[in-house]
């Protein structure tokens, strides 16, 4: 605009009131934030130089250019500008890193030897230009991000809020942590950017926007808030609890766990000195590691306006901090308090003044000593080479660019006793302290170191934390706060993300049958190994029991004893019949078939023992085949006896053609032919796909079943179907012959025996298919014994009764009498 107005002239934008340097052989300069200034918007109605400019960055440029261009005003052969965290004092919407680069380019253009040592919150200069070396004196931002993430995961805080400044640094912070945190399972409940302002006119709008942000923060379910900002940002954050328009939130603020980045200092504006900062008590802050150099504390406490020489900053600070005026700068008429100069710095709130060193100050301290040590090393070398330079007519000062070589890989002990080492990349190996803020009712601030982030440790071990040393806000009742969208899914259930919600917000669904979740918040339930099974709550895998019908358990020993008992009874019946083999009742119904039937029943009862005990190769081969052949032989005997009775009565009719079939040959033929068919089926079975020992891991959830695999299911059913057909035919023939005369007829007893036999095996089919494991085997054993008992009792009990208890009825005359 001035180029169109002749009366305009370019002037110094702001008069510099103080010069913070002293003459010396060597000056190491630093650009450090000291003040934050508000101003009105420029109206262009008067000369800008008559009012304090809001454009803080122009002041910084002015002073840096003054240092780097007007060398004749600064005595000494060298000037090394230590550009330190410039962005903390520039207008927040500007790019502090760009400002550093601009200063460096200016210094390079002027051929002025500069080295940029960045402390604290300054970002890593990824766009380093050749010939513009930068040195990072504090831990890198990457280490801080990893440390914050490790802390969140350590406490299982997966639902957090983010507060960042509304500038380039805040945007870079958000863009960096978002993918990193999301990948590790941390979700954002809200992401708010704190507005910044430079003009007084912007304050109302900032407060209105801050009220909305405050409402979101303190009404959120997230109990953890991650705060990133500049060194002065805490002064802005302190507005938040007081900005809510809702009285229930303002008067009953739900406290949060504030995780504060290393860039933020606990600093306040002067007018905030009496504000209650208790809401930030219990905060966890990442701070640059530091230690107080010897004597530093006493040095600070003895600083006052009268003890400083030419330090205008101390005087201005003193007046604002103690709310008084120093006598030598007051007007004739003084309104307000007069400073005595003896006020105690230790009485100031911690938010206004720190009597101990801070991490940022410690980095400045180390940076200054790094330059000093590098200069000392370079000077020593130049002194040895001074004669050569004089001979060649060169000034050793022209070799100042060599300082870069001395700063790289420099190592020394600073005054606090710590080792400072700058590696080849210009980075100092510095750790981060984890500090717990405790704010008392009198607003005094106490910092308690509760851990650290060690850059030298492996990534998974870099976090060192003493949980017992942390004091949480009283709102949490000294219990570790939770900050999750869904509290947790207990073992036995898995997470199911809600549709349209972040992955941290989910429902808990029980594990499906056969699966377990043995940890909290599992994404999916897992199957147990085959040798294990899920517990009742589906939260653990338990070892399966080995299961088979054993002689050592009550069921197995009972069936075995019952089988042996029936075998003994059958043997006694057979012995009785053999002893009375010449009696009419034994002879009447084909004595040989009777003996064969009793022997078959004896073998059937003993066959049941093959099903008890651990399955072996031999027992598996014999179980079903022996049972099928022996039982088929028994049923064939019954069928042959029934046919023999029927044919005998048919042959008694006059001129009957059946007489030629009556005799022992028919019964033996029926027995042999029926048995051979079943034996043939079993032979084919054993030859093609024989049974074998097997392990069933899945049929019964809690057991590993040792069983006999039938090999061919088709052959197994063929054996049972054939035996069922023989039994059905025997039952039908016996039923038709049940009314023949009793003297020679046992068809009635055969009918009852086959009825029992068929009933047992019809019941066997659903029972067998509905049971598993050893109980399936027990069902088959029970069916074998029950069907054998039916044949034994129904056919032989009446005969044994006569032979043993009524021998007088066992004679030919009695039988003939009954016949007549």
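Sequence proposed for the structure above (820 residues):
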């Amino acid at each position: 605009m001035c180029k169109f107005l002749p009366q305009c002239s370019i002037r110094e934008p702001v008069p510099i009131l103080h010069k913070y340097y002293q003459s010396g052989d060597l000056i190491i300069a630093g650009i450090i934030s000291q003040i934050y200034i508000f101003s009105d918007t420029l109206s262009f109605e008067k000369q800008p130089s008559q009012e304090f400019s809001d454009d803080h960055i122009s002041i910084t440029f002015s002073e840096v250019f003054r240092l780097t261009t007007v060398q004749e005003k600064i005595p000494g052969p060298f000037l090394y500008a230590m550009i330190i965290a410039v962005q903390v004092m520039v207008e927040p919407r500007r790019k502090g890193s760009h400002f550093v680069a601009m200063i460096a380019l200016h210094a390079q253009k002027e051929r002025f030897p500069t080295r940029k040592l960045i402390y604290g919150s300054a970002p890593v200069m990824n766009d380093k230009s050749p010939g513009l070396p930068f040195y990072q004196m504090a831990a890198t931002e990457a280490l801080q991000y990893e440390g914050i993430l490790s802390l969140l995961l350590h406490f299982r805080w997966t639902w957090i809020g983010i507060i960042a400044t509304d500038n380039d640094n805040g945007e870079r912070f958000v863009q960096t942590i978002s993918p990193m945190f999301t990948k590790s399972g941390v979700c954002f409940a809200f992401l708010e950017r704190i507005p910044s302002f430079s003009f007084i006119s912007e304050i109302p709008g900032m407060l209105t926007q801050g009220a909305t942000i405050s409402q979101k923060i303190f009404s959120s379910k997230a109990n953890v808030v991650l705060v990133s900002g500049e060194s002065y940002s805490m002064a802005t954050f302190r507005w938040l609890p007081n900005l809510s328009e809702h009285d229930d939130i303002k008067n009953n603020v739900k406290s949060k766990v504030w995780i504060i980045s290393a860039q933020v200092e606990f600093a306040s504006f002067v007018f905030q000195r009496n504000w209650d900062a208790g809401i930030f008590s219990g905060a966890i802050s990442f701070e640059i590691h530091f230690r107080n150099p010897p004597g530093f504390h006493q040095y600070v406490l003895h600083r006052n306006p009268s003890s400083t020489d030419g330090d205008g900053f101390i005087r201005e600070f003193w007046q604002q901090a103690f709310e008084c005026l120093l006598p030598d700068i007051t007007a004739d008429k003084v309104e307000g308090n007069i400073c005595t100069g003896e006020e105690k710095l230790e009485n100031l709130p911690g938010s206004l003044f720190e009597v101990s060193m801070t991490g940022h100050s410690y980095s400045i301290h180390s940076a200054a000593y790094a330059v000093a040590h590098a200069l000392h090393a370079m000077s020593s070398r130049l002194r040895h080479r001074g004669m050569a330079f004089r001979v060649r007519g060169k000034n050793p000062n022209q070799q100042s660019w060599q300082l870069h070589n001395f700063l790289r890989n420099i190592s020394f002990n600073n005054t606090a006793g710590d080792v400072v080492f700058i590696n080849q990349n210009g980075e100092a190996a510095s750790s981060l302290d984890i500090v717990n803020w405790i704010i008392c009712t009198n607003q005094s601030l106490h910092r308690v170191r509760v851990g650290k982030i060690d850059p030298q440790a492996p990534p998974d071990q870099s976090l060192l934390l003493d949980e017992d040393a942390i004091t949480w806000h009283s709102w949490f009742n000294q219990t570790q706060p939770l900050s999750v969208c869904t509290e947790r899914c207990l073992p036995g259930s898995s997470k199911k993300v809600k549709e349209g919600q972040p992955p941290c917000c989910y429902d808990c669904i029980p594990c499906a049958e056969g699966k377990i979740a043995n940890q909290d918040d599992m994404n999916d339930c897992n199957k147990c190994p085959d040798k294990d099974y899920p517990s009742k709550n589906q939260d653990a895998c338990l070892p399966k029991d080995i299961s088979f019908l054993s002689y050592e358990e009550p069921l197995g020993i009972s069936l075995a004893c019952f089988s042996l008992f029936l075998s003994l009874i059958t043997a006694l019946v057979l012995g009785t019949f053999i002893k009375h083999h010449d009696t009419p009742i034994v002879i009447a119904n084909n004595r040989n078939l009777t003996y064969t039937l009793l022997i078959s029943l004896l073998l059937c009862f003993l066959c049941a023992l093959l099903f008890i005990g651990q399955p072996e190769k031999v027992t598996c081969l014999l179980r079903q085949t022996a049972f099928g052949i022996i039982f088929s032989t028994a049923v064939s005997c019954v069928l042959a006896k029934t046919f023999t009775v029927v044919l005998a009565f048919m042959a008694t009719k006059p001129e009957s053609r059946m007489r030629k079939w009556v005799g022992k040959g028919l019964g033996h033929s029926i027995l042999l032919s029926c048995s051979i068919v079943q034996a043939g089926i079993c032979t084919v079975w054993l030859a093609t796909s024989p049974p074998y020992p097997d392990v069933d891991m899945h049929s019964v959830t809690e057991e590993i079943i040792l069983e006999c695999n039938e090999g061919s299911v088709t052959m197994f059913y063929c054996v049972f179907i054939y035996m069922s057909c023989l039994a059905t035919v025997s039952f039908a023939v016996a039923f038709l012959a049940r009314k023949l005369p009793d003297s020679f007829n046992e068809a009635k007893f055969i009918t009852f025996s086959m009825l029992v036999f068929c009933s047992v095996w019809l019941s066997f089919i659903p029972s067998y298919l509905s049971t598993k494991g050893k109980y399936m085997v027990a069902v088959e054993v029970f069916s074998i014994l029950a069907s054998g008992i039916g044949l034994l009792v129904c056919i032989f009990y009446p005969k044994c009764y006569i032979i043993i208890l009524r021998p007088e009825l066992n004679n030919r005359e009695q039988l003939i009498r009954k016949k007549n």
